[in-house]
Amino acid sequence: MSSVVTPSLVAALSGVLASDRVLTRAEDILPYGFDGTAALKATPGAVVFPLTSEEVAACVRLAREAGVPVVTRGSGTGLSGGSVPVTGGLVLCLAQMDRILEVDARNLTLQAQAGVITKDIDDAAGRVGLFYPPDPGSMKISTIGGNVAENSGGLRGLKYGVTRDYVMGLRVVLPDGTLTQLGNKCVKDVAGYSMKDLFIGSEGTLGIITEVMLKLVPKPAARRTLLALYDRMEDAAETITAIIGARIIPCTLEFLDRMTVGCVEDFAKIGLPTEVEAVVLMETDGYPAVVEEEAARMMELARQHGAREVRAAADDAEAAQLATARRSAFSALARRRPTTILEDVTVPRTELAHMVAFIREVAQRHRLMVGTFGHLGDGNLHPTFLTDERDTEEMHRVEQALEEIVDETIRLGGTVTGEHGVGLAKKAFLRRQLGESSYELMRTVKRALDPANLLNPGKIFDL
Questions:
Q1: Please, is 389 exposed, middle or buried when counting C-beta atoms within 10 Å of its C-beta (0-12, 13-18, 19+)?
Q2: Smallest Cα–Cα separation from 331: which of 380, 382, 398, 391?
Q3: DSSP state, residue 228
Q4: Which residues have CB under 8 Å from 12's CB, separation 6+?
Q5: What Cα–Cα distance (Å) separates residue 23 from each residue in 5, 14, 60?
Q6: Across-strand partners of 255?
Q7: Which of 148, 188, 275, 334 is least enclosed by beta carbons within 10 angstroms?
Q8: What pTM did the predictor assign?
């Protein structure tokens, strides 16, 4: 698609939206040319800020008539280039669609516009004694619409699942501007195809999510947070395997390697020991008696598998501090070098120890600075390259290292992305993982719903 935003399209958009919600000046649209992904950017022709689903639909119809591609974004925290615009195209920013429309405590549901910040949803649920479990690392700034479009995970994914597991309904604008309602508050509903699931994780390539209906759950009565320190990363990985093998499913099983721990401590200064090879954060929640039993068993398993020290958080404040340390890993690492490339691969849990060691060996062989952290409980690793995109030779070594990590991930039966999405950053690897028939099936769905290739063209795959 080659069409770009024209003055006539700007005039038409200004007729639908207030003029201050249509940006065209270069200095105003500059921040909307990139997301959280390193080294990917483009300059859109215009950025618009609708306030309702109907305004989104009207903007899409105008763009379709003009043959202009549309890229949707929220807070721009994505890590796969999913909301990087098409040069000269239209950016549809939903950040001002930020209203929580309903909290239904009797049906355990919440209805929100796509631009609501994820943590605000959990806070709203908490005020009526409920809980929204998905908690991506960016939950304080990412929007729920982006979470659904990327099917985001988070620290609590091991026990509670990912965003898809909590979506009961969606309002979606289709590529022709049609506004649809998918799903409802019913716990059981098998009427026809489950169309909402087609749009969850579709990264804005099939439709634009404008409202979401989410399932809530009762808030856990008790929670216990533990910290285990290791002199060998392999022992940390084996501990996680042992915990799952003991039929314990904690709320959280997270880890930081030595480099990440050092960066986090330098950044947050919360007293983390920096001489260890790995720190594992474990959290169990539920009924008080079960929590105490599981916490004791996890501490025992950690010691049996080589932990030099295991301790429990003294109170809620310390537990929150430890969780904050893990959530700040990306920010802390980003202070070390000019460019931070946060990768995202997932392997079966039984392959964790091997994969962690493999990443470390690859980094050493290619003379790269790599900090690894992630969700050991569900096999999701985040090898993070600390580099400088201005150094062409070093960036070439980063690309070589990433190729090796992806190849090994696929060889082990893993996936090239566990929670960040494909976008631009991972689309070169997708066919390799899926195989030709599955890959072509996805392209067939895209052609059926968006024959003009209007929505987020060039993401996930090329047509």
A1: middle
A2: 382
A3: E
A4: 62, 66
A5: 11, 10, 16
A6: 280, 374
A7: 188
A8: 0.94
| pLDDT at residue 75 tops 90 | yes
> Minimum mean pLDDT among 148-152, 242-246, 303-307: which range?
242-246
The CATH number of 100-218, from 3.40.50.720, 3.40.710.10, 3.40.50.1370, 3.30.465.10, is: 3.30.465.10
DSSP string, 73-142: ESS---SSSTTPPPTT-EEEE-TT---EEEEETTTTEEEEETTSBHHHHHHHHHTTTEE-----TTTTT-
Q: Are 462 and 207 in contact (CB under 8 A)?
A: no
Task: Copy the structure tokens of residue 419.
Answer: 């929670």
What is the three-state SS of 55-79?
HHHHHHHHHHHHCCCEEEECCCCCC
The residue ranges of every structural domain in the chain are 7-93, 100-218, 222-411
Q: Distance between CA 199 and CA 22 in Å, rounded?
A: 27
The phi-psi region of residue 373 (left if phi > 0; otherwise alpha if psi is between -120 and 50; otherwise beta) is beta
285 pLDDT band, cuts 50/70/90, is very high
- How many C-beta atoms lie closer than 10 Å to residue 126's C-beta? 13
pLDDT score recorded for residue 2: 54
Contacts for 168 with CB less than 8 Å, ≥ 6 apart: 109, 183, 184, 185, 186, 213, 214, 215
pLDDT digits (tens, 9 = 90+) for 302-356: 999 999 999 999 888 888 888 877 888 888 999 999 999 999 999 998 898 899 8
Other CB atoms within 10 A of residue 345 CB: 27
102-111, 275-284, 312-321, 397-406: least confident range: 312-321
Give how far Cα 244 sits from Cα of 327, 365, 373, 378, Å.
Answer: 23, 32, 19, 10
Report d(CA 149, CA 144) in Å as an integer.
9
**Topology of the domain covering 7-93:** 3.30.43
What is the CB neighbour count within 10 angstroms for residue 437? 7
Q: How many CB atoms lie within 10 A of CB 191?
A: 7
Q: How far is 425 from 460, CA to CA, in rounded Å?
A: 9
Residue 423 backbone zone (phi > 0: left; psi -120 to 50: alpha; other: beta): left
Beta strands, E only, 231-368: 252-257, 278-286, 307-312, 339-342, 345-346
CA distance 381 to 254: 10
CATH class assigned to 222-411: alpha beta
pLDDT 10s digits, 261-279: 999 999 888 888 889 999 9
Q: Is the distance from CB of 401 to CB of 144 less than 8 angstroms?
A: no
